């Protein structure tokens, strides 16, 4: 069962609606008992890093999540801030991340004011992703691979081998990451029309 973590953040209903259209079973989990039934996990997230980590850490779900992901190797995908939470930490705050993928979350910064003016924050709108290695997660996307983004921070991987795809906003940054059973995507597939539907279907079939 694809299980969407309900810890009080993220548009969880949008993910459920996508899977309903695909005729793929999905449910919400707001208790450890519900989460234990997961065969795949979606960790959504919006807003600030520290707030998201606080919500998750006080939800009663953190211990079960760590066990499922780190010990039982259940596939998990983090969306937007849900992806950033998988890092060790973030320049946005002082909280520790989940440390599921070795890396840190950094704020977009540019070498001079002219470049910065061309790339206002947040990075909001449609952007192409560029796969840099083969992954079933990005199979069957259209030629342009456009997705919807809304963020001011990006995931900086300690190991470049964990980068599946990049996007460009003044420079190339990791837009999709993967280490073992842990996946993270900076864009919002639930808002990205057919490419987003294809990516979520791919995750269901991993």
Q: Could you please describe the fold and organization of this structure?
A:
This protein has 206 residues and is of the alpha/beta class. 27% of the residues lie in helices and 29% in strands. The protein is built from seven helices and 13 strands. The longest helix is centred in the last third of the chain and has 12 residues.
What sort of overall outline do the alpha carbons produce when their principal axes are compared?
globular
Order of helical and strand elements: EHEHEHHEHEEHEEEEEEEH
Approximately how much helix is present in the residues?
A: 25-40%
What is the mean pLDDT? 96
N-to-C span: 13 Å
Q: Tell me what portion of residues adopts beta-strand conformation.
A: 25-35%
Class inferred from helices and paired strands: alpha/beta
Q: Main beta sheet, described?
A: 8 strands, mixed
Alpha plus pi helix count: 7
| Overall number of strands | 13
Which value, in Å, is the CA radius of gyration? Answer: 16 Å
Low-confidence stretches: none
Strand order of the largest sheet: 2-1-3-4-13-12-11-8
List keywords for this structure.
206 residues; alpha/beta; eight-stranded mixed sheet; three-stranded mixed sheet; globular
